[in-house]
Write a structure and sequence with these properties.
The chain has 403 residues and is an alpha+beta fold. It has 3 domains: 3-52; 60-94; 166-172 and 183-398, no CATH class. The chain has 10 helices and 16 strands. The protein has helices spanning 3-20, 25-53, 59-76, 83-90, 109-119, 121-125, 192-214, 268-276, 280-283, 292-299, and strands at residues 102-103, 127-130, 136-142, 162-167, 171-180, 218-223, 228-233, 240-242, 254-259, 287-290, 322-323, 326-330, 345-350, 355-368, 375-388, 394-398. Strands 8-9-16-13-10-12-11 form a 7-stranded mixed sheet. A hairpin with a 2-residue loop joins strand 11 and strand 12. The chain is extended, with a radius of gyration of 33 Å. Mean pLDDT is 79; it is low at 90-99 and 102-108.
């Protein structure tokens, strides 16, 4: 208690004692006022002390409690006697669906999302939304065309926008981990539950990264004045390629392709041609995607004077990795340039925000210490659709045929 507050209380107490012994009416009134002030001061002091002694409930506390509850849940499952578990269930931090299991607490979602973005370069550049199974997306296929006329000239019908109707398919990714039932005893020096969580999430992230490039989940696209339905795969590398593409090439279900000048080699001349084949509407947000082997090959290219060519194109140290001012990403699922098949896509370049990921269900966990008395099983699953929505927005560099 501060000296200032103590002094004020002492003055009020002395005043009350002095006026209480007086028979004067004015002093009696002063006495009543002093009593009221003293009571108010004491109440304020009690409230202040109660607030200071109350437990903290800031954002850090919430994160710590949620992390503790999640770790406990991963080891022993939902415990109705655990106050944090009951609170999480009541506030829908854990959700159960018809298929059973619990979704990840909201405080863990950012961690999962960051891991998925780091593992899947396409996700880090794509547009991600929450959508139900069978989600239908309308993608513009052509834009309206304006007309002009002289004074008194005829007014003709204009061209209106046309759209492709894309119905996304669904794929479920799942991962299992099994540990000795002894890990539930709580006497291990290693946090096996936390490690199981990391391994499961890493497995899901790796599979998702593969799906976006090599996936064969089929989407249905309807296009044209008399709608024609075609099946198109989700993976960018599984799409067909239209040869000798220019910036106006827009074939549904296919990537516009440019062929490299040599077999199993890519030069900056090839990349310049690839950039030129993309319409300017998409170039502002365009990025490259290729494999680490090609990155090494580009790094080691030299000019006639023996200087590294890429050194002339690098951004300021600490900035994003770029090629001719355009950011690039590396994926383990892009073909190895050294062993690429004839006609294989070795570089993707375009506006990856036109690749849509529809998250149809969050990551759901199932904890099972019962079906096998020797082991405790952890199972996680997630469901999504994905695919390119604008085929003019993406270009592919293909490997020239040779030996």
């Amino acid at each position: 208690m501060s000296q200032e507050i103590m002094g004020q209380l002492t003055e009020l107490t002395d005043l009350v004692r002095e006026k209480a012994a007086s028979a004067d009416v004015v002093d009696k009134a002063t006495y009543a006022t002093g009593v009221a002030e003293l009571q108010a001061e004491l109440k304020s002091l009690r409230d202040d002390l109660a607030a200071k002694s109350a437990p903290r409930h800031d954002a850090q506390d919430v994160r710590e409690q949620a992390a503790e509850a999640f770790a406990n849940f991963m080891v022993k499952g939902f415990d109705p006697k655990n106050e944090l578990h009951r609170k999480a269930a009541a506030e829908a931090n854990f959700l159960t669906g018809e298929a059973g299991g619990f979704t990840i607490p909201r405080v863990v979602d950012p961690e999962i999302g960051e891991l998925l973005r780091q593992t899947s370069p396409v996700r880090s550049m794509a547009r991600v939304i929450s959508a139900p199974m069978g989600y239908v997306h309308l993608a513009k296929n052509s834009k309206p065309a304006a007309s002009k006329r002289a004074e008194g000239g005829a007014v003709t019908d204009g061209q209106v926008s046309t759209y492709n109707e894309i119905t996304f398919g669904s794929a479920e990714f799942y991962e299992n981990a099994a540990l000795s039932i002894w890990t539930l005893d709580g006497d291990s020096p290693i946090d096996f539950a936390a490690q199981a969580k990391k391994d499961i999430l890493a497995g899901l992230a790796e599979l998702e990264a593969q799906e976006h490039l090599l996936g064969t989940t089929q989407n249905t696209i309807k296009y044209g004045p008399t709608p024609t339905a075609v099946l198109v795969n989700s993976g960018l590398l599984t799409l067909g390629v239209s040869a000798n593409a220019n910036r106006f090439t827009n074939d549904v279900g296919k990537l516009g392709g440019v062929m490299s000048a040599a077999n199993k080699a890519v030069t900056f001349d090839d990349l310049i041609k690839l950039q030129a084949s993309l319409h300017s509407n998409y170039s502002g947000n365009a990025k490259y995607l290729f494999g680490s082997e090609l990155e090494t090959q580009l790094f080691t290219l030299k000019d006639g004077n023996g200087n590294y060519v890429w050194a002339l194109n690098q951004a300021i140290a600490g900035g994003p990795a770029t090629i001719r001012g355009k950011e690039y990403a590396v994926s383990d699922f892009m073909p190895d340039i050294n062993t690429a098949a004839n006609g294989a896509v070795t570089v993707l370049y375009g506006d990856f925000s036109k690749y849509l990921i529809t998250e149809q269900a969050g990551v759901s966990w199932v904890f099972d210490p019962i079906t096998d008395l020797r082991r405790v099983k952890y199972h996680a699953r997630m469901r999504q659709g994905s695919g390119l929505t604008d085929f003019q927005a993406m270009r592919a560099l293909t490997n020239k045929a040779g030996t």
